[in-house]
Each structure stands twice: as C-alpha cells, then as structure tokens.
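Newbie here. six chains, one complex. Structure please?
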Amino acid sequence: MAANNSSLPPGVDKDQAFGMAETEMEYRVELFNRLAQTCFTKCVDKRYKEGELNMGENSCIDRCVSKYWQVNNLIGQMLSAGQRPM
Amino acid sequence: MAANNSSLPPGVDKDQAFGMAETEMEYRVELFNRLAQTCFTKCVDKRYKEGELNMGENSCIDRCVSKYWQVNNLIGQMLSAGQRPM
Amino acid sequence: MAANNSSLPPGVDKDQAFGMAETEMEYRVELFNRLAQTCFTKCVDKRYKEGELNMGENSCIDRCVSKYWQVNNLIGQMLSAGQRPM
Amino acid sequence: MDKSMLAGLDGLPEEDKMRMATMIEQLQLRDSLRMYNSLVERCFNDCVDNFSRKSLQKQEESCVMRCAEKFLKHSMRVGMRFAELNQGAATSD
Amino acid sequence: MDKSMLAGLDGLPEEDKMRMATMIEQLQLRDSLRMYNSLVERCFNDCVDNFSRKSLQKQEESCVMRCAEKFLKHSMRVGMRFAELNQGAATSD
Amino acid sequence: MDKSMLAGLDGLPEEDKMRMATMIEQLQLRDSLRMYNSLVERCFNDCVDNFSRKSLQKQEESCVMRCAEKFLKHSMRVGMRFAELNQGAATSD
C-alpha cells in the first residue's frame, strides 16, 4: 500500500508517526467497545437469569456484530466518497 | 486580557503551557460534541424518512444551539461565582 | 506491598512508571464520575423543585455509594479470580 | 473557559507554533474518528433492530444512509451556529 | 486496582515529584472541565424541552440553576462517602 | 480507517519497536480499566434499584455476578467475530 514503508513520508517526523499510530489504535479500541456495548444491549436479556449466554443470544450476537460491521463500512464509504462536503 | 502575552507567566514552563492549551481545546471539542449529540436527539425525527433536514428540524436546531449556549454560560457563571463552595 | 518501593522494579523505566501512574489515576477519576452520575440518576428527583437535597435523597445517595462500591469490589474479585479466562 | 490559556502561546518562536499546529492536527484527527464512531453507533441503534438475519436489509441500509446524511448536515449547521456564538462572545469581551 | 503502581514513585528525586504534581494538576483541570460539560448536558436535557423560542425562559433558567446546585451538593456528598470507603479499604489492607 | 498509518512504522529500528510495544501495553491497560468501569456501571444499573438498605442483598449480588459473567462471555464472542471480520477485510484488500 505504501511505496516506501521502510522510511517515513517526508515532512512527518517520528513523534507525529507515533501519535498517529496511537490515535488509530484508540479508534479501533473505541469501535470494538461501542460495538460490544451496543450488541450486549440489543441481544442480552437484562434479567440475567443465568450466567451463560443461551442459543438465541449467541446467534443474535453474531448477527449483530456482522450488521454493525456492515453499517461501519457503509458510513465509512459514504464519508470517503463525499470528502469535504460543501 | 493578559498583561504580558508575549512571554509565559513565571513558574509555568513550556510543556505545561502546551498541556493546558491541549486541555482547553479538548474541552471545546467536547462541548461542541455534546451540544451536537443533544440537539440531534431533541430535534431530529428518528424515523429518517429523508436525508434532508426539514424546516421544523432546522429551526429547532438553531434554537437548541442557542439555548444550550445559554445554559453553558449560566452554569459557568454560577460556578465561577461560587468558587470553592464550602 | 512492594518490597523495594524506593526504587523502580527492574525493566520498568521512568516514563513507563509515570504512564502507569497516570492510567491508574484516570481509572479512579472515571470510577468516581460514573458512580456520581449513576447515583444522581437513581436518587435525585428530576423535577428539581428546589436546590437542596432532601433527606430521602441524601440517604439514598449514601446507600447508593455504598452499594456501588460493593459491586465494584465484587466484580474486581471475580475478575482477579478468573484471570485469563479460556 | 479561560481564553487566556491560548493567548499565552502568542509571540512564541516558530518552533512552538509548529508544535502547536501538530497538536491541533492530532486533536482534529482524533475527534473526527470519534465522531465517526458515534455516528455509526447512533445510526445502527436507530435503524437496526432485527437480528433474524446476518446481512443488512435494504430498508436498514437506506435508513442508515439517511441517518448519516442528516447527522452530517446537522453537524454543519450546529458548527455554523456555534462559530457565530463564539465570535459574538469574543467581540463582547 | 493495583495500589502499588503509585507506591513505586515514592522516594524519587525532587524533580520527579514536580513532574508528578504537574501531571495531577493537569488531570484535575481536565476532569473539572469534563464535569462541567456533563453537568451542562444533564441540566439542559432535564430542564429544556421546548424549542418554540430562541432564548431560555425564566422557569427553564431556574430549573437549570437548581439542577446544577443539586448536582454540586450531590458530588460533594459522594466525594465524602467515596473518601471514607477508600480510607476504610486502605486501612483494611 | 487508513490502515497505512501503522504500516509507516515497519522497518524502524529496535528502539522504536520497543516504544511501540510500550504504547500498546499502556493502551491495553487503560482499555481494560475502562472496560472494568463500564461493566461495573452496567451491572449496577441493571441489578440494583432498591436503596432502602446499605448493603448489597443476596439476589442483587447474584444478579451482578451473572451479569458480569454474561458480559465477559459476550466480549469474548464479539472479540472472535470481530477478529474474523478484520481478517476478512485484510485479505480482501
């Protein structure tokens, strides 16, 4: 993807590169956390009758993760297509 | 506002000044984000029948921003008046 | 608790120690903030008829803080007991 | 709150202005990624409620698109109003 | 969680204690600005629901003031209880 | 978003890889503490609603335990699915 991945692009110093990498990782962590919180709320019965996830909850979780991922991609495409609206 | 804005106040070194500036900017970003999320929730119809904001939503948004700003100032004044309650 | 608290454990340099201390403090601040927000929501009447907390609210707050603390400990114990599930 | 925080950095050498610019850039990047995450969460929450299938249905997809479009337009409008109020506050200082 | 994290910084030179103090100060400033933001959001949400006008009405204003007052008193009380529990936990260590 | 951000750090000297590893470790520690905080908040919210007593009742305690257990199992499952999707996205690049 990057032509010269053994050296930094000109004008970007090391601290900046580390800062960007950190921001990128924070983004992924936040994506995962929001997805997990959202799917727990949508799929898991709040009465907590038992500590195990039942079959219905498990398949709901799988589908929820899949759909969340698709929504993430959909909005990502929309944002990169319309870079700088106005 | 500051008498000597061409040099830092004594006892504050450069790293501290940058840290304070960063904190201040984070505050403004957070204020904007909370305001935007709140007014979206209060003013925009969740059924999303169309991608455009209609007239009712637009005027609701303008008033919502204005009122949020006033609440922000009101509480800010209250907090600075009663510095260190107790 | 730490045998040699006058020097850093081997392999941990100073920046790392500061980073860990910062993370630890952020954790405590977040714990306090979540507890405060949660107990306000559970105990304080949203109609805000007056600026004072009444007796019922005050005792609710005390019990809420106590119970939140217990839940925090309970889950903490559970997590440290089952370190690395799977 | 205290507008003089930033003012304290005026008149500093070129090197510090560069450092400032980098910091602002990082904050903006971080903020736009957070906005993206919260937009996804909101539109998912408002548009997707049926988990009998694994893939997004057509009407869910179009709901998500309109939700995101509305949110972006909303953000721009709020940004304009916010800037006006900030300016008003600055001149009335 | 692990209380020894902080203990590891005892007995360090003066310079490091200064650095620590600066860090704590920054965290406190950041935290109080966040608290301010969340207080504004909460009181706005609970007190303002009518958008037929642009300016805050008298009863909205007094609702906001009482809300903020209650929240601050609440925070102080929670802070006291929290400190007691922290101390109790420390002595029972 | 831009996967090349991380790629830009490939081929760097050992010293930078160490710095990277430290950064990742710190992020993980911070994230797990946040997860802990949000787990406590959620299970408290869902399980504790009665404040006529100061100490946690038996049925509240068991509700909290099951809630935490469910959440951890949920997180592991989501983590697995998330990793699969991430890999799929990487290979289809």
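Moderator note: Confidence is low (pLDDT under 50) at residues 1-5 of chain E. Residues 73 and 79 of chain E are 10 Å apart (CA to CA). Thread marked as resolved.
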